[in-house]
Amino acid sequence: MQSSLRYTCSLLLSTTRRPARLFASTSSSFQAAGTPWFVDPTPEPSPRYGQRPLPPHVQLQHGASALLPVPDDAPDVLKSLHSELAKSPHLDLAQLTVSPAILPPPGPPLPLRAPHGRRKRGGTYAGESAFDSMGGGIWDWVVIAQVKEGTENRGAIDSVVRLVRKTLLTREPPVPLAPKSRHARGTEWVLIDAGSFAIHILSKASRERYFNQVSW
């Protein structure tokens, strides 16, 4: 009885030692080659590796053709502002433009009519304007920054407004700006008056509605 038990134990020990010796020899061979035993020496490349497309704002930042150039005669403050706006993930960089202010074509003139009534209302002649003799508008340059479609009500316009104000106020010398106004949330068009130039931060719908007559 004891002899049979010893034979069974020796048989079990021999079967358990054989895989351990094989495992030890395999691990030693990999360690000798400089590769850990748990690393596959010939990994198969994943078919999806490197094929994942970049996010839209990263594609536009890497694509130089999507970003419109700044005119050479533009002021330095607009060139630095343009470079900062190009880093914003909220803007549609293909629609970021810096251009001289172009007045829209005037509409048909109103029929000349004198004021009438006791309160002298209804007249169509408002007098001469100082801008008529200057031949230009209020600003010399205009910056159009359009946020990505669908992000205008998610804080994208507010984020771009903060970026513009920070860029202009931290310059040397700083650009004088009006105090920050509290516009209602959900606004699709914000105008920042910087003296000789203006920055329009707006949505795609507002640009197509209000700026469709000017080729900016």
UniProtKB/TrEMBL annotation:
Residue numbers spanned by region Disordered: 100-122
InterPro entries: NT_sf
Top-level taxon of the source organism: Eukaryota
Pfam families: RsfS (PF02410)
Biased composition annotated in UniProt, kind: Pro residues: 102-112
Name of the featured protein: Uncharacterized protein
Organism, as annotated: Psilocybe cubensis
Biological classification of the source: Eukaryota, Fungi, Dikarya, Basidiomycota, Agaricomycotina
